[in-house]
Amino acid sequence: xxxxxxxxxxxxxxxxxxxxxxxxxxxxxxxxxxxxxxxxxxxxxxxxxxxxxxxxxxxxxxxxxxxxxxxxxxxxxxxxxxxxxxxxxxxxxxxxxxxxxxxx
Length: 104
Fold this sequence. Notes:
This protein is an alpha+beta fold.
């Protein structure tokens, strides 16, 4: 099992919307992906709940689960995922990623 974790920091205002509005939009877009991409077993999205001024805090996190590395690569290239990527590029200031093998 492969887990793909992405964390983002969002711009305060982007695309005419607040950080909070864009976080909700991105959450919905990401949560819709497993129904559109066969290689995805699951996608969990969380919006940060703590209001603190700390460089280590991110605004949004995604955890995706795939069976194989090939499935993860297929997800990354999938047109529906690429649409989310294009939206993210407009609203994100920083992005961090880790992919790992999980026994769960």
